[in-house]
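Propose amino acids for all 183 sites.
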């Protein structure tokens, strides 16, 4: 464990004899090692203070927020190496095989076949690039439920929907405020 004494010099010691405070290293490798050790120390302190169940719940919430905010592709790129180290016999995450997931895939494919000619964006009037299921994919592909959006407007709509569903890191309760304002 790396510790800094009162003079700012780094020394090795046990967790009982010091703490991870002091000048932050400027060299990239030392900086990475410093913050990795700082994270381990914080994780160990959280585990010791609150227990394994709190630690697991904290991880699940963090994962759900990250997944909701950035999407599965981002999370896969972020966690790919550690996942493959843990499960070397797998090539990637397993796809969900629920009836709802299969139904959504089928409806999205059907929408691509039914609505081939791009229309102006329903929000701003720019050329539409993406089909959007206004009331959700499972509501079907009737014309009232499928609207065209430009990339910017579609991204904004998706961001708001994710905040409603997952909240934000800064304010996880935001979903209640936003969803009540929509009603």
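Proposal:
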């Amino acid at each position: 464990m790396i510790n800094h004494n009162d003079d700012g010099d780094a020394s090795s010691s046990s967790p009982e004899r010091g703490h991870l405070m002091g000048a932050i290293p400027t060299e990239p490798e030392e900086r990475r090692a410093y913050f990795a050790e700082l994270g381990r120390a914080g994780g160990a302190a959280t585990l010791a203070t609150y227990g394994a169940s709190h630690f697991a719940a904290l991880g699940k919430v963090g994962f759900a927020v990250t997944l909701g905010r950035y999407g599965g592709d981002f999370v896969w790129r972020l966690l790919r190496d550690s996942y493959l180290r843990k499960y070397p016999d797998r090539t990637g995450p397993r796809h969900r095989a629920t009836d709802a997931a299969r139904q959504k895939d089928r409806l999205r494919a059907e929408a691509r076949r039914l609505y081939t000619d791009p229309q102006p964006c329903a929000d701003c009037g720019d050329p539409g690039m993406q089909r959007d299921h206004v009331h959700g994919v499972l509501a079907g592909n009737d014309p009232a439920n499928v609207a065209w959006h430009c990339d910017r407007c579609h991204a904004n709509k998706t961001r708001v929907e994710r905040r409603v569903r997952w909240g934000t890191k800064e304010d996880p309760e935001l979903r209640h405020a936003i969803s009540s304002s929509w009603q």
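The mean pLDDT is 77. The chain has three domains: 1-50, 51-92, 99-182.
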